[in-house]
Write a structure and sequence with these properties.
Blueprint (H helix, E strand, L loop, with lengths): L10 E5 L5 E5 L4 H10 L6 E5 L5 H12 L3 E4 L4 E4 L9 H6 L7 H8 L1 E5 L12 H9 L3 E5 L2 E5 L7 E3 L8 H12 L4 E5 L5 H12 L3 E3 L6 E4 L8 E3 L4 H14 L2 E5 L7 H9 L3 E3 L5 E4 L9 E2 L11 H8 L4 E6 L8 H8 L3 E5 L2 E6 L7 E3 L3 H13 L3 E5 L2 H4 L5 H7 L3 E5 L3
Helix pairs in contact: 1-2, 1-7, 4-6, 5-6, 6-7, 8-10, 8-12, 10-12, 11-12
Bound molecules: uridine-diphosphate-2(N-acetylglucosaminyl) butyric acid (EPU).
């Protein structure tokens, strides 16, 4: 099956000043499904994954699995993978282009005891090292060399071990995923300390346990994995995307509207909803639905990004867009990635007043925003520009929305249904 990836130079044209009102269906989680797709490499049997978002990152991962020899079918929502016969060497260029693909390393090692995977590059939000992934895999007995842009890993035996995975900025999400998957088929017991607690890790552990793995404690900093000989095929439904839900929640508040987030999990959104409420938005969780509406005023709030359950770095840019509208000063501190403020200069093109001081952005909000041409630099930065464009007066054109297509399913269609005046302009 061919996995088409949308043209790359499209832009969004937004006519601002509309209030978003109505209901939006939240898609499956990108950051949950990518490691789950990698986990299908752990078995020769067929896995069926439902509620899969149709994103360019997902299609990229389909291509990577195919390049490893797996049979992959994707109908835009249900994904079927059969990795009966696979090789341990992935397509260099595909893997290099998508950072999330590093999580094939753990499953390839576990299944084949050897893997050669291109080193993912840094990206615009920071250098993004993988030393913790390698440290964890080495602790299980893997020999690893980095050579000619490849990580070459070899593990005649994988043995359970005590692994401490905390780093400079706290735990690592995909590093935790890699070690979980490798340890699932190791001999003996692995105790993973300072593990990432993100809901996406719980979803991966649920998937692995359904395959026959023995994992306890996912969602807490200490995870215990008792290795098993073999894993089997499984059916699984991916959790809703908490960052997509958070993005629409912020868009509702920024536009002065009211949006019901269908299928969202409020229990995954604690820090985001808390900050929105502090900023003056109203949150209604009655009857199992989650509705976010703008209050009568917006207040500035200070935010520091942290590992889960703290405020997510993946919502920092969107909150910055909201803070541009709140009269007063807010301080936004980024503690996970060192250079994740590329959206600040673009927001300033719309009239925002933002100063960067080290890891903090000082936002002096409340100045009127007016439309301009802006450039998306990464996935969440793009979302922030779209939110600001909807709140601004006049026309905003957001270029390079291929960043957005990596992680938001048909965002412009969903926004239009809520009343936004937004259209995709095909690139040359
Ligand atoms: N880090 C290291 N060494 C490592 C790995 C990470 O020092 O070996 C550092 C990073 O440089 C960063 C911190 O640890 O300072 C946390 O990075 P983490 O490893 O947790 O990030 P990731 O697993 O590569 C995932 C998401 C990101 C999200 C981060 C943090 C996927 C596919 N990606 O990346 O999502 O920002 O966790 O929550 O799950 C996005 O969706 O826009 C996105 C960037």
């Amino acid at each position: 099956m061919m996995f088409r990836i949308a043209p790359t130079m499209d832009s969004f044209l937004i006519e601002g000043g509309t209030r978003l009102c109505g209901e939006v269906q939240i898609s499956g989680s990108k950051n949950a499904v990518l490691p789950i797709m990698a986990a299908t490499l752990l078995t020769a049997e067929t896995c069926v994954i439902r509620h899969v978002p149709d994103l360019s990152d997902v299609r990229f991962m389909c291509r990577i699995l195919t390049s490893l020899g797996a049979q992959v079918e994707f109908d835009g929502s249900t994904l079927t993978v059969c990795a009966a016969k696979i090789t341990g060497t992935g397509d260099y260029d595909l893997i290099r282009k998508m950072r999330g693909s590093i999580c094939i390393l753990g499953p390839l090692l576990a299944r084949l005891r050897t893997a050669s995977v291109s080193l993912p590059g840094g990206c615009v939000i920071g250098t993004r090292p993988i030393d913790l992934h390698l440290k964890g895999l080495r602790s299980l007995g893997t020999e690893i060399h980095v050579e000619g842009g490849y990580v070459k890993a070899h593990a005649p035996e994988l043995n359970g071990a005590h692994v401490f995975l905390g780093g400079r900025a706290g735990p690592t999400v995909l590093g935790t995923a890699n070690i979980l998957m490798a340890a699932a088929l190791a001999d003996g017991i692995t105790v993973l300390e300072s593990a990432a607690c993100e809901p996406e890790i719980i979803d991966l552990a649920d998937f692995l346990n359904a395959m026959g793995a023995r994992i306890q404690g996912a969602g807490s900093p200490t995870i215990t994995i008792t290795g098993v000989r073999e894993l089997h095929g499984v059916e699984h439904e991916v959790i809703p995307d908490r960052i997509e839900a958070g993005t629409f929640a912020v868009a509702a508040a920024a536009s002065g509207g009211q949006v019901t987030l269908r299928g969202a999990r409020p229990d995954h959104l604690g820090a985001v909803l808390d900050k929105l409420q502090e900023a003056g938005a109203r949150i209604d969780r009655r009857g199992g639905a989650l509705t976010v509406s703008a209050g009568s005023f917006l207040r500035p709030v200070d935010i520091t990004t942290m590992p889960y359950s703290g405020f997510p770095t993946d919502m920092q840019a969107q909150l910055m867009a909201l803070m541009c509208l709140a009269p007063g000063t807010s301080i936004i501190t980024e503690r996970i990635f060192e250079s994740r403020f590329m959206h600040a200069s673009e927001l300033m093109r719309l009239g925002a007043d933002i100063g960067i001081e080290g890891p903090s952005a000082i936002v002096k909000g409340g100045k009127p925003l007016s439309g301009a041409e802006v450039m998306a630099s990464d996935l969440r930065a793009s979302a922030a520009l779209v939110i600001a464009g909807i709140a601004a007066s006049g026309k905003t054109q957001v270029h390079r929305v291929y960043h957005l297509d990596r992680g938001y399913e048909r965002m412009e269609v969903k926004l239009e249904k809520l009343g936004a005046r937004i259209q995709r302009v095909p690139g040359e």
